[in-house]
Amino acid sequence: MELTHFINGKHVKGTSGRFADVYNPATGEVQAQTPLASAAELAAAVEGAKAAQPKWAATNPQRRARVLMEFVRLLHRDMDKLAEALSREHGKTLPDAKGDVIRGLEVAEFCIGAPHLLKGEYTDGAGPGIDMYSMRQPLGVVAGITPFNFPAMIPMWKFCPAIACGNAFILKPSERDPSVPLMLAELMLEGGLPEGILQVVNGDKEAVDAILDHPDVEAVGFVGSTPIAAYIYARGCENGKRVQCFGGAKNHMIVMPDADLDQAADALIGAGYGAAGERCMAISVAVPVGEATADALIERLIPRIEKLKVGPYTAGNDVDYGPVVTSAARDKILGLIGSGVEQGAELVVDGRDFSLQGYENGFFVGPCLFDKATKDMDIYRQEIFGPVLTTVRAKTYEEALGLAMDHEYGNGTAIFTRDGDTARDFASRINIGMVGVNVPIPVPLAYHTFGGWKKSAFGDLNQHGPDAFRFYTRTKTVTARWPSGTKEGAEFSIPTMG
Ligand code: NAD
What we know:
This protein has 498 residues and is of the alpha/beta class. The chain has two domains: 5-247 and 456-478, Aldehyde Dehydrogenase, Chain A, domain 1 (3-Layer(aba) Sandwich); 251-437, 3-Layer(aba) Sandwich (Aldehyde Dehydrogenase, Chain A, domain 2). Helices cover 39% and strands 21% of the residues. The chain has a seven-stranded mixed β-sheet, with helices on both faces. Helix 2 crosses helix 7 and helix 10 (261-273) crosses helix 11 (291-306). The longest helix is centred in the first third of the chain and has 20 residues, at 39-58. The chain is globular. The protein binds nicotinamide-adenine-dinucleotide. InterPro entries: Ald_DH/histidinol_DH (IPR016161), Ald_DH_C (IPR016163), Ald_DH_CS_CYS (IPR016160), Ald_DH_N (IPR016162), Aldehyde_DH_dom (IPR015590), MeMal-semiAld_DH (IPR010061). Its EC number is 1.2.1.27. It is an enzyme of class 1 (oxidoreductase).
């Protein structure tokens, strides 16, 4: 099957002659081919968006919000279809795929509040006869480049606020699972969005570079790995664009001696192995404090990990997590596990030989647990993005805090404790963007903002929540004085309002 782009309200075949294979990760089969756009195809999408955008910007925000209201209804209507297409290309379980759609849908719901969120500020009588007001205006044509791991949620995090603000949006989704983004664009059109306001351009580096270099693309939002985030941030900024880029992660969960260890172990299982560990908010490092805590935690983790059910999404509720996205991802994960063993960490659960009858060609990796890893090992320094949990034992709270503080990534973290003072100290001192207290995956809800610190984010505004409305608009401030006084002659000193 040959996939398409979605331009000016229509499915459009690729013309570059370049394609990428799209796999079913559970079977290892190629199920579709996605076109990889050339710079000329990207330019055509921008041209259509640029032509459509002024009319959309002039549509009042309440009417724009109604499109999102209808979009939310259509997402619910098509939930099963979306989840199935998502699982088929990504590999995650059906309930998890629905979660992917729902966490995006919640941002669409938040954006229905656009009329309120776009209100400016007003000062009546800022000076004698002078009023001052600000308004938020759309930027024009903006773009989003998104990763494979949340093919529904992250595109919606980007295009819902951008479009609610009155922009036209170019979406360049991951070439590994492009079908759901195309379906989302169809639903936006069905919901009443004018043609050209949401363009889906499939592609790889060539399409991304064309976005970064196109003079009519005013802003770029990116989510993906840190090296690409850094590259896109630098090239986009150099070309004078507004850019926000969110990168990789290595999320630590500190387990204090006073924590409920059964609860902590359950949390680590879900947060470490859910979605095969392919989440930027997955917990990949467990840091028990004290030898006794570490021993008791490992003792609880091992039987839980051994019970994990790994399989294809078609097995329904019988599966805890599925395959990883490609054979290259699997090989990279297996390579890192091998390096952990070589560098001296204890592999207490080894899932490397996992194989599933009937799915021998699927990209499965069995769950792995490392104990006694150290700071210098590759399994600790690098993002593995697979079903591998690494334990680093700390002697004290300060040592555990220091580990998370010193790591180059700063997306999410969590502490498990019964002590409010420790939790409060941790939340206050940690240099990481999203913090959980007895919550392993602290992904903020749509009306708060999502973003990491350090090498996990480039730029100064977060995703969704009020920050998204700031990112996708610019402020204009008007100072107005009405007739009297204008006849009185010129002012030569700088105006002050005193
Ligand atoms: P990726 O960086 O390989 O790809 C992301 C996007 O960039 C894709 O659209 C891809 O086509 C494009 N791209 C890839 N290589 C490129 C290049 N050389 N030049 C220009 N564009 C290029 O990331 P991925 O593997 O799809 O996603 C997994 C990564 O995303 C992980 O590192 C994960 O932590 C991260 N992630 C971060 C967040 C967050 O909010 N911080 C959320 C989800 C995923």
